[in-house]
Amino acid sequence: MRISGSIALVTGANRGIGRHFTRQLLERGATKVYATARDPEQIDIPGVERLRLDITDPQAVRDAAAVASDVTLLVNNAGITTRTNLVTGDLRMVRSEMDTHFYGTLDMVRAFAPVLGANGGGAILNVLSALSWFSYDGANAYSAAKAAEWSLTNGVRLELAAQGTLVTGMHLGAADTDMMADYDGDKMDPADVVYAALDGIEAGRLEVLADEWSAHVKASLAGDPSAFYGTAAAG
User: Fold this and answer.
1) Which residues, other chains included, contact 225 with Cβ-Cβ below 8 Å and sequence gap of 6+?
2) 3-class DSSP state of 195
3) Could you tell me if 82 and 97 are in contact, meaning their C-beta atoms sit under 8 angstroms apart?
4) Contacts for 40-47 with beta carbons within 8 Å, 24 or more apart?
5) Which of 151, 175, 177, 189 is deepest in the core (most CB within 10 A)?
6) Concatenated DSSP letters for 123-190?
7) Cα angle vertex 232, ends 100, 180, to 5°?
8) Spatial distance between the Cα atoms of 202 and 6, rounded to a whole number of angstroms
9) pTM for the full predicted model
10) 54-63 burial by CB neighbour count: b if 16+ within 10 A, else e?
């Protein structure tokens, strides 16, 4: 998969990582970039095709696939965080996380898989998280939704292999975006996250770990959970 000459669609392109994806795709020579958002008027990058899209609206997803029928690279970046726990949190917020990260991403894949197949296979990049692999008290709805999206990524990769579509999952810890504005720890430059992700696509990689924290968390899955969580999960 080469970025130069590709025709890409990026969800959640109005800010943060999505905005960097849009810009870097153009810089790398993408022929066309559909930059999508719920409010496309917020997209201020020149040279893109702005498109209104709410990935939690199945009809809007179908409409976008009909308009962007030339896409060869789909970047599923749109996401939310409600900072909601599972046991005592507002169940509407829990469902909103799952509707966005799991069902919204799945709707995008289902709508654009035939488009990609008709255009030679192409690639899908799903923006995941280190929180796909661990839980954090105060954001467990997000962790559960991202874990589901990770499993989705692995599943659709197998289902789309026959049509030649590369499906890549990109995991990161914290990036310096509006979504992580309240986080006080170390944060990556979102431009570096996107650079690593696009390099991974061009290298044909199935998974991109954008930072050391993601690599550390994934490696911890082979051990006993107590080694990672310590006394926090002991009750």
Assistant:
1) 233
2) helix
3) yes
4) 40/14, 42/14, 42/15, 43/13, 43/14, 43/19, 45/13, 45/19
5) 175
6) EEEEE--GGGS---TT-HHHHHHHHHHHHHHHHHHHHHGGGT-EEEEEE-S-BSSGGGTT--S--B-H
7) 40
8) 11
9) 0.93
10) bbeeeebbee
User: What are the residues whose beta carbons fall under 8 Å from the beta carbon of 180, sequence distance 6 or more?
Assistant: 174, 187
* Beta bridge pairs of residue 35: 10, 50
* CA 149/CA 213 separation, integer angstroms: 19
Three-state secondary structure string covering 36-97: EECCHHHCCCCCCEEEECCCCCHHHHHHHHHHCCCCCEEEECCCCCCCCCCCCCCHHHHHHH
Beta-carbon count within 10 A of 186 CB = 11
Q: What's the CA gap between 187 and 56, in Å, rounded?
A: 28
State the residue for tokens 């970039």.
33
Contact between 174 and 180 under an 8 Å Cβ cutoff? The reply is yes
Phi/psi at 137 (5° precision): -60, 115
pLDDT in tens, 214-234: 999 999 999 999 999 985 655
pLDDT in tens, 21-33: 999 999 999 999 9
